[in-house]
Amino acid sequence: MSLLEARGISIAFGGLRALDQVGFAVDRGRVLAIIGPNGAGKTTLFNVVTGLYRAQAGEVRLDGREVTGLPPHALAARGLARTFQNLQIFFRMSALENVMVGRHLKERRRLWAELLGLPSVLRENRESREKARELLVFVGLEARAEEPASALPYGALKRLEIARALACEPSVLMLDEPAAGCNPVETEEIDRLILAIARRGVAVVLVEHDMKLVMRISDRVLVLDQGRVLAEGTPAEVRSDPRVVEAYLGRHGLEAARAA
Questions:
Q1: Angle between helix 154-166 and 119-138 (nearest 10)
Q2: Distance between CA atoms of 256 and 215, rounded to whole angstroms?
Q3: CB atoms within 10 A of CB 35
Q4: For the chain, what percent of residues have pLDDT higher than 70?
């Protein structure tokens, strides 16, 4: 049994069928990449799995339990976290505070305890701060913990957002274009970070256009085209599939994939 499974996912917007019987599965400590041309349905699939959209057909199972249609906060409480293609950062807060925001699902606060300033509240605040610092060390941002997020370069903000997603201690982490907009050095940092997350036993699912990154770090690759599964397999199997080359990789993409 896989940790996260999507089966027969279908959804349409008006007359446009965005996904048609799409499915995938990923296990603990493994990396699954979802690729495809623009409009293939990659982010729509992410949004269905993470509860932002409700599919017309299909089901999502997390650790053996059906979670189809649950809202994002309920899925996060069950161990499924995600990031977005566009940064969702609190720029006026420090890097440390941004990560602490991700700890709220792990805190057991009560309003009356907050108002009275009970020791339990202070203890929980201290624990959240310590956990957030540990995650900043993990993503390589410990030296910038107290800086406002607005002072961080773009690649660091990408890692900060991943740290915040990890703060809720997910068993599954879904990353929507984690390397988008990053330069080669920043992309390598994201590359290493994703592999380190997988080594912790977290299942990682990512949408990404950088074929070098995809081919380097993925255990499995799912290729979508016009809302349908075009191919699925290991990176080697996918990059040698003539259907994938024709529909998506093309000559330049294939060269990038082979160079990975």
A1: 130
A2: 9
A3: 28
A4: 88
Give every CB contact of residue 51 below 8 A, 6+ residues apart in sequence: 69, 70, 71, 72, 74, 75
- Residue pair 168/103 in contact (Cβ under 8 Å)? The answer is yes
First CA to last CA distance, the chain: 31
Q: What's 228's DSSP letter? A: E
Q: What is the pTM of this model?
A: 0.88
Please state the rounded mean pLDDT for residues 95-121.
68
Domains in the chain, CATH or no CATH each: 1-79+170-260 (3.40.50.300), 89-168 (no CATH)
Can you give the pLDDT at residue 37? 87
Tell how strand 228-233 and strand 220-225 pair up.
antiparallel
Q: 28, 25, 27, 85: which is closest to 52 by C-alpha?
A: 85
Q: Which of 54, 91, 49, 69 is nearest to 175 (CA)?
A: 49
